[in-house]
Amino acid sequence: MAESPAAIRFGITGCADIARKVARAIKLAPNATLYAIASRSIDKARKFAARNGLSGAVKIYGSYEQLLDDPCVDAVYMPLPTSLHLQWAVLAARKKKHLLLEKPTALDVGDLDRILEACESNGVQFMDGSMWLHHPRTAKLKDLIFDPKLFGQTDIIRSTSTMPGTQDFLESNIRVKPNLDALGALGAVGWYCIGAILWAKDYKLPTVVNALPDVIRNSEGVILSCSASFHWEPADKTVATIHCSFLSHTSMDLAMTGSNGSLHCNDYIIPYQENSASFDYASGATFVELHIGWNVKVEEVTVTSELPQEALMVQEFARNAENIRKFGNRPDSKWPDISRKTQLVSDAVKKSIDLGCKPVTVAK
Amino acid sequence: MAESPAAIRFGITGCADIARKVARAIKLAPNATLYAIASRSIDKARKFAARNGLSGAVKIYGSYEQLLDDPCVDAVYMPLPTSLHLQWAVLAARKKKHLLLEKPTALDVGDLDRILEACESNGVQFMDGSMWLHHPRTAKLKDLIFDPKLFGQTDIIRSTSTMPGTQDFLESNIRVKPNLDALGALGAVGWYCIGAILWAKDYKLPTVVNALPDVIRNSEGVILSCSASFHWEPADKTVATIHCSFLSHTSMDLAMTGSNGSLHCNDYIIPYQENSASFDYASGATFVELHIGWNVKVEEVTVTSELPQEALMVQEFARNAENIRKFGNRPDSKWPDISRKTQLVSDAVKKSIDLGCKPVTVAK
């Protein structure tokens, strides 16, 4: 995509695999340009640039600090291990860089609040890397579930995010190391499940979460697999369940039933294909005479997308950054609010697990 | 279907709506014939016969007892309210009638054991009315989930059975009346969810069940909606969740994820269509380069069925009855065992609900 003169200039701190996908997304987003990459080792950064065919114009730094000190960098995408977020995200904000932070955002909401305060006080945009929220299918799903006639009151939401960790992953990946990504599967993949439940409830926080007693940890205590149920105040009878795991076949199910409709989306985090995505949906279903079949055929709704969801995420983030630069806007509070609520619920699930699966009240 | 001379002669006690479907199934099954119907009122029985176009040869009785006293009746299909099962099912067994009993089988396992003992001591076949177990799709699903390579170890099973009760249903249907069907939604639709979980675990009983705190009861205390999680002994990390309700849009989801595969079946109790049924299935799924899509397309597996599942149920039941009559076989213990395990788990869910959603050990 040709670079617009007003494009937001991105730096990437860290050369994790996910950075390759976001580097491509930055290239695809019309209002963004990849300006610099940094690794703790300049060799690693050079290799990343070569492997990903980055233009020779992309600056290459051998330390995160150097990248953050470059005044031409407007925004930073930060795919570092979670335990490093607090230090580097706060520094990025202080250096007036808009911050696209990989999820999970922090080890707990206390750390996240320090990051968000740094962004707020420095007038920079914050957003976490939940790409699926930016797919047009997600907007279509939302239109549907908030249609009182077609869907009605939400009764049950079930969300999974599982992946089969290879032996190598389970032994040495940063996501199973207590000093790097202490939240394990709850952070790496459970973040999506929790985010999907909150999204489906229009970000109304549950009052209580309860981990189920199927927790599996590795020898260092990091969560490899867990489930939980979420409950709202007594007048709100929605029940939601999540299951996240490094030990199961790839799944990313979002299934919801309301008083008038139901839907199934089995690839909500990463669509099967890049340019179009679907979900199944039924409303007003009942049985034919004698109950020997259904009166409605489940509808497959397909939504096309001109840009992949990660490029739409970058575009939205860069749009916010542009609005701040051009019009002196305040950062959009929508994105930090979403991240904070997700972190609050994640903290409560973690606490419930640590307490032996006792019910835990969700903090505000 | 032309009646075979050896066809098992069925009587139906009770003219509930479901009896219409099973009357048709008896007509469709090649080894069964509808011989008699009974209602507490002979007028009601006559109307049922007329409405369903029953042959003039079908005997019509104004009491259940008269039908059970007819020596030509080999087998009884009994769609009575659950609270009447103990009395009439035991009497039917004593009268040497094979017993196809509508679910839930009894108010608790104590009552069911009395029914099963009566069947056992009188040498008659027992089966409950779970039709979906007899669909060839169910056999196909089972082949798949017990394939260690394609599916692997089962990690999570989620099952729902929900229907939107009309105002009339919620006010006056027998399924919401404490003196008729005291188990409410747990019995009427939760039976399927529990049955599906047990089926998926090859009838290995969970050790603990835990109702979730989203229970909704009516003013008379009957359960209208509830959820629960099931857990096995520590070495078995499967987690299963159920949700059953009279207050939600029609849903009957069975979703499972194993170490190597996953499947989704959204009409497992009553297929969308009568003659063929499908499910979605993936094995070995992972992401393509850069994680911008999946490496496998989910496969839709379709299974055709020459007879509807309820006719296959009648056929299997009549086959067991024939084997007893012709060859002096003992009744097949498979079917009472399935019912008893389902009832045991249902009892534990009920107890967990009654205890305020505390974990409950499943009895043996």
Please describe the topology of this protein:
The structure is a homodimer of 364-residue chains.
Chain A lengths: L7 E6 L3 H12 L3 E7 L3 H10 L7 E3 L2 H6 L5 E4 L6 H10 L3 E4 L7 H13 L4 E3 L7 H10 L8 E11 L2 H6 L11 H5 L1 H11 L7 E4 L4 E2 L5 E9 L7 E7 L1 E5 L2 E5 L2 E5 L10 E8 L15 E6 L4 H19 L6 H21 L4 E3 L3
Parallel strand pairs in A: 1-2, 1-4, 2-3, 4-5, 5-6, 7-11
Antiparallel strand pairs in A: 7-12, 7-13, 8-10, 8-17, 9-10, 10-11, 13-14, 14-15, 15-16
Structure description:
Two copies of one chain form a homodimer. Chain A is α/β, with parallel strands linked by helices and 364 residues long. Helix content of chain A is 34%, strand content 25%. Chain A has helices at 17-28, 42-51, 64-69, 85-94, 109-121, 136-145, 167-172, 184-188, 190-200, 309-327, 334-354; strands at 8-13, 32-38, 59-61, 75-78, 98-101, 126-128, 154-164, 208-211, 216-217, 223-231, 239-245, 247-251, 254-258, 261-265, 276-283, 299-304, 359-361. In chain A, the strands form two sheets. In chain A, strands 7, 8, 9, 10, 11, 12, 13, 14, 15, 16 and 17 form an eleven-stranded mixed sheet that branches. The longest helix of chain A is centred in the C-terminal third of the chain and has 21 residues, at 334-354. The first copy, chain A, is globular. The interface between A and B is large, with 66 and 66 residues. Chains A, B: GO terms for molecular function: nucleotide binding. Chains A, B: This is Oxidoreductase. Chains A, B: Residues 8-127 form the Gfo/Idh/MocA-like oxidoreductase N-terminal domain. Chains A, B: InterPro entries: Gfo/Idh/MocA-like_OxRdtase_N, NAD(P)-bd_dom_sf.
